[in-house]
C-alpha cells in the first residue's frame, strides 16, 4: 500500500497548494499597526505595541478556505505573508526587491561601496581575480524582482505595493527595532576599527543585511523554540484569564510600571478575543453563503467551535485543537518571525 493511499484527497490538495502556490505579501498588518502606533507617542512602549496590535485585530480581513476544518489564517489569503514592519528585518528587502530598478540601484551602490574600500586597501584587483576563480556567489539575487524569481518568489498587488513603498516603509525608516539596534551597536564600540569598516564594505548579495555579533547571534535571529502556555489558555478560556488580569488591576498598591504592564496585557488579551470573535463572524458568513450541503455541515461545526473557543474551555478534542490554533495564529500575527511551537500536544489535548 502506497503512502498516498493513506492521505485524503483534501490533505493531498492542501499539501500541493502549499508547495506550488506563490505566497502573497499582505500589507494589512503593517498598515493597521502603523496607523495606531504613531498616534500614541506619549504612551509607554508596551501600551503602544498592545494598542497597535489590537487595531490590527479590529480591522484585518479573515480568510476561510473551502478545504478548512480548523479556521484561522494570518492574512486575507491562503498563503498570505504579513509584514512585521516595526521590527524591520525585511524592510530593506521590501524596499529594494519589489522593483527591478530598485534592485539595480541597490546593487550598484553596494558594489561601489565595496570597490572604494578595496581601493583604499589596495586590494581591488586581487578581489576581482578571486571572484573570477570562485564563480557566482550563493544566495545572489541578481536583479530579479521577487515575483519573477525561480526560488522563493512572492507577489504583491500593485496598489498595495505602492502604499508599502510610498507610505508605510518611509514612516518606519530609522525607527524600526533593527534600525535602533544597529545605531546603538555602532555607538557602543562593540564592533569597531577595521572590523567595522570591513563589515560596512561587504557587498550585498541580497537586501537582508544585518550586523552579526557572532556566528549564532545577530539582530535578525529568528526563534522557533518558544512555547506559549496553551494549557492554561485552553483549560480556562480567554474570558477567565482576562477577568484575572482585571482583578489584579484593582490592587491599589500597584506602582505605575506594574500597572502599565497589566494594562498592556489586558489590551493584548482584548485584541486576541477580538481576533477570535471576528474569525467566528467570518466563518458564519461563509456558512450562510454556502449552498453545498456537505460543506455547509462542515462549516456549521466549525462555526459552533469558533463561537465557543478560545473564549471558554473546550468540550471536545476538535474544540481544543481549534482553541489552540486560534491563539497560536493570533499571537504569531503579532510576532510573524518568531514561530511558536505547540509543545506537549499529547498532554494539552488529552481528554
Automatic annotation (TrEMBL):
<protein>
    <recommendedName>
        <fullName>PFL domain-containing protein</fullName>
    </recommendedName>
</protein>
<dbReference type="InterPro" id="IPR004184">
    <property type="entry name" value="PFL_dom"/>
</dbReference>
<dbReference type="Pfam" id="PF02901">
    <property type="entry name" value="PFL-like"/>
</dbReference>
<feature type="domain" description="PFL">
    <location>
        <begin position="9"/>
        <end position="351"/>
    </location>
</feature>
<dbReference type="GO" id="GO:0003824">
    <property type="term" value="F:catalytic activity"/>
</dbReference>
<dbReference type="InterPro" id="IPR051215">
    <property type="entry name" value="GRE"/>
</dbReference>
<dbReference type="GO" id="GO:0005829">
    <property type="term" value="C:cytosol"/>
</dbReference>
Amino acid at each position: 500500500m502506497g503512502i498516498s493511499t493513506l492521505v485524503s484527497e483534501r490533505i493531498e490538495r492542501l499539501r500541493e497548494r502549499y508547495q506550488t502556490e506563490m505566497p502573497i505579501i499582505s500589507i494589512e498588518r503593517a498598515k493597521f499597526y502603523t496607523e495606531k502606533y504613531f498616534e500614541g507617542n506619549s504612551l509607554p512602549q508596551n501600551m503602544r505595541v498592545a494598542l497597535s496590535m489590537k487595531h490590527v485585530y479590529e480591522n484585518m480581513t479573515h480568510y476561510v478556505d473551502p478545504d478548512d476544518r480548523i479556521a484561522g489564517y494570518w492574512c486575507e489569503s491562503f498563503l498570505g505573508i504579513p509584514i512585521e514592519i516595526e521590527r524591520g528585518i525585511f524592510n530593506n528587502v521590501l524596499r529594494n526587491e519589489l522593483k527591478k530598478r530598485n534592485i539595480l540601484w541597490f546593487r550598484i551602490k553596494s558594489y561601489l561601496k565595496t570597490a572604494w574600500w578595496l581601493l583604499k586597501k589596495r586590494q581591488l584587483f586581487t578581489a576581482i581575480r578571486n571572484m573570477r576563480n570562485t564563480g557566482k556567489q550563493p544566495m545572489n539575487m541578481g536583479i530579479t524582482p521577487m515575483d519573477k524569481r525561480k526560488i522563493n518568489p512572492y507577489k504583491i498587488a500593485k496598489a498595495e505595493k505602492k502604499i508599502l513603498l510610498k507610505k508605510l516603509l518611509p514612516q518606519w525608516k530609522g525607527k524600526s527595532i533593527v534600525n535602533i539596534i544597529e545605531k546603538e551597536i555602532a555607538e557602543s564600540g562593540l564592533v569597531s576599527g577595521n572590523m567595522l569598516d570591513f563589515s560596512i564594505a561587504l557587498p550585498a548579495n541580497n537586501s537582508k543585511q544585518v550586523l552579526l555579533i557572532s556566528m549564532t547571534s545577530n539582530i535578525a535571529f529568528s526563534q522557533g523554540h518558544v512555547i506559549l502556555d496553551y494549557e492554561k489558555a485552553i483549560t480556562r478560556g480567554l474570558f477567565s484569564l482576562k477577568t484575572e488580569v482585571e482583578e489584579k488591576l484593582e490592587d491599589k498598591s500597584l506602582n505605575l510600571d506594574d500597572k502599565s504592564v497589566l494594562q498592556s496585557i489586558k489590551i493584548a488579551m482584548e485584541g486576541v478575543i477580538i481576533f477570535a470573535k471576528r474569525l467566528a463572524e467570518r466563518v458564519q458568513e461563509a456558512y450562510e453563503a454556502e449552498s453545498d450541503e456537505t460543506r455547509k455541515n462542515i462549516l456549521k461545526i466549525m462555526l459552533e467551535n469558533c463561537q465557543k473557543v478560545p473564549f471558554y474551555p473546550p468540550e471536545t478534542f476538535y474544540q481544543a485543537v481549534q482553541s489552540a490554533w486560534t491563539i497560536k495564529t493570533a499571537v504569531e500575527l503579532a510576532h510573524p518571525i518568531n514561530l511558536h511551537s505547540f509543545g506537549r500536544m499529547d498532554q494539552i489535548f488529552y481528554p
